[in-house]
Amino acid sequence: MVGVRAFLDEFCPPITVSExxxxxxxxxxxxxxxxxxxxxxxxxxxxxxxxxxLRFTRYPRFGQQHDVPERDExxxxxxxx
Length: 81
Description:
This protein has one helix and four strands. The protein is α+β, with helices and mostly antiparallel strands. The protein has a domain of 51 residues. A hairpin with a 4-residue loop joins β3 and β4. This is F-box associated region family protein. It comes from Loa loa.
């Protein structure tokens, strides 16, 4: 791993994060991706901004919406609505 760290420190290449997500059409889902590059020896940031959500609602081809929560408050120990 030492060679990889030295390469990243010296050349600072552009880093691209790519992700593909899909959802079932018959149930709602929320997708969240969080990516962090931290300097060597640092701890994760204590501040966590509100994430942006990708919402996939149930039955998008129908005109009516079903019970889909708008936003949840999530911490390390609980999820509340």
